[in-house]
């Protein structure tokens, strides 16, 4: 069974923008975008660290919407 994160590890990970493994601090991780699922109005994304093989799940909430982005023009 995977170790569970402490409240400190969770807040560090979120303050860091989720860019590093919450267990070992490595920036080398994979996330499965094609496994986006909506759970009670939240989007969850599975992550796995390539260095220490820990797994966790990010939870996203809708916070804003934007106008459609202008298509980039070729230069
Ligand atoms: Zn790790």
What's the β-strand tally? 3
The helix/strand series, from N terminus to C terminus, equals HEEE
Measured between the Cα atoms of the first and last residue, the distance is: 52 Å
Q: Identify low-pLDDT runs.
A: none
Structural class: mainly beta
- Domain unit count: 1
Mean pLDDT over the full residue set: 84
Note the main attributes of this structure.
single chain, 75 residues, mainly beta, 3-stranded antiparallel β-sheet, 1 helix, 3 strands, 12% helix, extended, binds zinc ion
Structure explained in plain terms:
The protein is mainly beta. The protein has one domain (7-60). Helix content is 12%, strand content 33%. It is built from 1 helix and 3 strands, in the order H-E-E-E. The chain has one helix at residues 7-15, and strands at 29-39, 42-49, 55-60. The chain has a 3-stranded antiparallel beta sheet with strand order 1-2-3, with no helix packed on it. A hairpin with a 5-residue loop joins strand 2 (42-49) and strand 3 (55-60). The longest helix has 9 residues, at 7-15. It is extended, with a radius of gyration of 15 Å. The model has no long low-confidence stretch (mean pLDDT 84).
Topology of this structure?
Layout lengths: L6 H9 L13 E11 L2 E8 L5 E6 L15
Antiparallel strand pairs: 1-2, 2-3
Summarize the structure.
Helix content is 12%, strand content 33%.
């Amino acid at each position: 069974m995977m170790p569970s994160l402490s409240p400190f590890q969770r807040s560090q990970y979120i303050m860091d923008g989720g860019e590093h493994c919450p267990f070992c601090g490595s920036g080398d991780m994979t996330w499965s975008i094609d496994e986006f699922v909506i759970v009670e109005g939240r989007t969850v994304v599975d992550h796995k660290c390539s260095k220490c093989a820990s797994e966790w799940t990010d939870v996203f909430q809708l916070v804003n919407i934007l106008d459609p982005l202008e298509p980039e023009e070729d230069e």
